[in-house]
Design brief:
alpha/beta, Rossmann fold, 7 helices, 9 strands
Length: 266
Amino acid sequence: MSVEPMKRDGRTGKFRRIAERPYARARVVLFPHGGGSASYFRSWAAAVPWDLDFLVAQYPGREDRYSEPMPDDIQTLAAVLADGPPVDGPELPTMLFGHSMGALVAYEVAREISAAGHHPLRLVVSGHPAPELTRPGTVHLGTDEELVEELRRTEATHREVLDDTDLVEAFLPTIRTDYRLSETYRPRPGARLIAPVSVLYGDRDPEITPREAEAWSDTTEGPCEVRVFEGGHFYLDHHRDQVVELLTAYARAAVHASAAPWPSAP
């Protein structure tokens, strides 16, 4: 996966680096949930190891890309994100992680780069059913009040933000678009991935069942594993360190198996 630089000719790029890691031997690219932005993963900086480069996709329509329109479907968004390298510097073996809507984005990015012959080290998806079992919905067709109530139910947005009328008015169009992309998503025919797939979710998450998690095995010719954490849809908020440790272990094991030995010190 080669991605364009963070900044070029004054334009902001598509990815944000969580922390500088000059000795990185592999890269982990994170894809936020619907309505989320790169800043959701800002707190992960404290847990990121010295030998991995963690990047976050910044979707259009939020924060410093607020004025940019979101693509019409997840496949188009993934194609844009997969087009070119994410940052300046050497290309690194790359693992993909996506939560909720981000799981679908990560999956479609994996398909894009795999079709170009650049297979990811691993695809890690979180809090979302397998693509073929994606649940259709009509939340994106509801009133603003109904949309806010859905955000409260899933705890996708801090309650103090939802209580701020001006903030809600500013970000609801973007969230509505994200819901539309998620609720109208349908996977297109194509080859299975070669990369292994890992599925993470909370044991009290109403957005995914064990069967929907296990069905991710249909997306790959490689192995597929499922790991369950205590918590709801945003179990990540309470298990940040454990998830970062898991991603680190996956990346190090993959690089050790396929390339030069991991350095013992920076």
